[in-house]
Amino acid sequence: MPAAFLLFSLLLFISGINIYPQSFRTIVEGSVEITSERISETPVTISTNGSVIINIGTDPRFLRGVELEISAPAAWVQPRFRNMLIMSICNDLYPKSASGITDFTSRQLATAPLPSRLSIIYHIPVRTNHGLRNTTSVIVPTAIIQPESFPILFNLRPIDKGLPPEVENMTFNVTARAIFSDEGAVRLEPRYPPQLRNRPFTVLINDNVITNILEDIILREGENHLVIISENYRNESRRFIVERGKIIDLIIELQDPAPIIIFEGPQNAQIFFDNVPIVQNREPIIAEPGSHEIKYQIGDYTIIRSINVQRGKTYRIALDVNLNIIEED
């Protein structure tokens, strides 16, 4: 193989620069769609002149990149087979789907000799700040490939004509996986009291004001804290869990901010609120803000208290009867 051609291939691989669209023929031996489910990791077996089409079937907002793992046969690591195969990664495919022998027009993003390893792992970034790096076991072969430019094509082909039969008959398994960021999203669904619809309220998540609750909110995975602040509804505070790569629906039950009073006491107690008896199985009542009188009456025993209720508060009022036992000498 001419040294100049190998140098050109390596430069393309390292720099990740695009070149003009080109036409070529290859054997498409399968396609994979990357999703958040592990079941999508079924490998595709390709030959030494074969290709696999990779598409994104999950929400690209949560992707850092795509992992391609190529499992080689044991014989591939023999030194005499080194630099006999070249891999390439292409995007802007036309046609975008195919099987069997196909003529493509595409943009080649990376090309390099296939490493002499049993397991070859490529990480393809699909977003800025992806954090993907070359290591001793992982190769980052391209610059960022935007999700909208998928599908991409991974291709193997001989560097020179006339492969030895041992190499020509080799097959490689290609597995594609999603590399997720540590993010998920929450979708808020406010539900209004019938008498108080579409009044303003403020949502804070992790102390940050959410300016548009109609959009999915991208958050770090794990526990998050939501607060509702409003003069029109009851304030609320709750915690929720965000899972990596998933969107959760969070229902916000907005409540009337009128004060609520809950009464507790013995069954034979008569309860009065502003001299009006509480008779409906002692269900919570809605009160006007301000000062009110509470009266409990059991036989000849009566206790009266005043209470100043505030907007947005809930009050639980209970008659506490203690039995004191005193031992004397």
Task: Describe the structure in your own words.
There is one protein chain. With 329 residues, the protein is mainly β. It folds into three domains: 3-180, no CATH class; 183-253, Immunoglobulin-like; 260-318, no CATH class. The protein is 5% helix and 49% strand. It is built from two helices and 24 strands. It has helices spanning 3-15, 165-168; strands spanning 22-34, 44-47, 50-56, 63-71, 85-94, 100-113, 119-125, 138-139, 152-158, 171-180, 183-191, 202-205, 208-209, 217-220, 222-229, 236-242, 247-253, 260-264, 270-273, 276-277, 285-286, 290-298, 301-309, 314-318. The longest helix has 13 residues, at 3-15. It is elongated, with a radius of gyration of 34 Å.
Distance between the termini: 112 Å
The gyration radius over C-alpha positions equals 34 Å
Broad structural category: mainly beta
Helix content: under 10%
Short description:
The chain is mostly beta strands. It has helices spanning 3-15, 165-168; strands at residues 22-34, 44-47, 50-56, 63-71, 85-94, 100-113, 119-125, 138-139, 152-158, 171-180, 183-191, 202-205, 208-209, 217-220, 222-229, 236-242, 247-253, 260-264, 270-273, 276-277, 285-286, 290-298, 301-309, 314-318. The strands form six sheets. A five-stranded mixed β-barrel has the order 1-3-9-5-6. A five-stranded mixed sheet has the order 2-10-4-7-8, with no helix packed on it. Strands 13-12-15-16 form a four-stranded antiparallel sheet, with no helix packed on it.
